[in-house]
């Protein structure tokens, strides 16, 4: 049986008001009155089921609010970072996809030198989920950059998971192998900047990753 604090946590204001009137009219305790009101609302559900359902609704609402706040923070961060970069810097974009998820992975990337010349990256990358595909795309861009060793490099991606993970002290265990490889490459470059951008701003790399999924698998791929 749910405790009083559980009932108070999930009861709406109008239900609390109704329970107070019921307690006054029938000389019931506040708890008994609230139980009667909520049981009437629950219908065929038990009180425990009603409490669990409403707690889940509150948790879902809190998650949605947190996601909206994160999107707003991402948008503000993007605006702060979207000023024109140093004209002497090399720019790169990466994107990975998986069809289905998990499924066949495709890697896409673009490396642009200060003169505007582009190097495109696009290849199938075996089987895995989207996070692995995004990491492999970041690694591919880093490897391409390492061939020219630019003095300044700015890397853009729309994967918050990978960008946060590669810069975290303790990232996701399942991504540890890819994080280690990416960090090894980053350490060989001149402190590249890693910047999140909205997916719509990553269209070229996305198109290359989608194209890669349609290519035949490379011999030896799992």
Explain what this protein looks like in three dimensions:
This protein folds into two domains: 4-80, no CATH class; 90-213, 2-Layer Sandwich (Nucleotidyltransferase, domain 5), CATH 3.30.420.10. The chain contains eight helices and five strands; from the N terminus they run ααααβββαβααβα. A hairpin with a 3-residue loop joins strand 1 (90-99) and strand 2. It is 53% helix and 18% strand. The chain has 222 residues and is of the alpha/beta class. The protein is elongated, with a radius of gyration of 26 Å. The model has no long low-confidence stretch (mean pLDDT 90). The protein has a five-stranded mixed sheet with strand order 3-2-1-4-5.
Quick take:
By secondary structure, the protein is an alpha/beta fold. It is built from eight helices and five strands.
Bulk shape: elongated
Query: What strand order characterises the main sheet?
Result: 3-2-1-4-5
Number of domains: 2
DSSP helix fraction: 40-55%
User: What is the class of the largest domain in the CATH system?
Assistant: Alpha Beta
The low-pLDDT segments are: none
In DSSP terms, counting alpha (H) and pi (I) runs of 4 or more, how many helices?
A: 8
The share of residues in extended strands comes to 15-25%
Query: What pattern of helices and strands is seen along the backbone?
Result: HHHHEEEHEHHEH
CATH architecture grouping of the largest domain: 2-Layer Sandwich
Organism: Herminiimonas arsenicoxydans
Protein name: RNase H type-1 domain-containing protein
Domain RNase H type-1: 86-218
GO molecular function: nucleic acid binding; RNA-DNA hybrid ribonuclease activity
């Amino acid at each position: 049986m749910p405790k009083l604090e559980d009932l108070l946590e999930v009861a709406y204001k109008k239900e609390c008001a109704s329970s107070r009137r019921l307690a006054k009219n029938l000389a019931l305790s506040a708890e008994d009155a609230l139980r009667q009101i909520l049981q009437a609302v629950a219908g065929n559900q038990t009180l425990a089921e009603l409490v669990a359902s409403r707690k889940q609704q509150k948790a879902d609402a809190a998650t949605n609010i947190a996601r909206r706040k994160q999107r707003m923070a991402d948008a503000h961060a993007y605006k702060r970072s979207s000023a024109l970069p140093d004209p002497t810097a090399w720019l790169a974009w990466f994107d990975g996809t998986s069809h289905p998820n998990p499924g066949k992975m495709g890697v896409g990337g673009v490396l642009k030198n200060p003169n505007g010349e582009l190097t495109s990256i696009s290849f199938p990358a075996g089987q895995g989920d989207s996070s692995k595909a995004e990491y492999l795309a970041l690694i591919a861009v880093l490897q391409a950059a390492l061939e020219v060793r630019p003095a300044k490099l700015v890397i853009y991606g729309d994967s918050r998971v990978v960008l946060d993970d590669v810069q975290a002290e303790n990232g996701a265990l399942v991504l540890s192998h890819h994080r280690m490889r990416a960090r090894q490459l980053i350490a060989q470059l001149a402190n590249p900047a890693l910047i999140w951008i909205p997916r719509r701003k990553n269209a070229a790399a996305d198109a290359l990753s989608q194209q890669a999924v349609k290519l035949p698998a490379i011999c030896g791929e799992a």
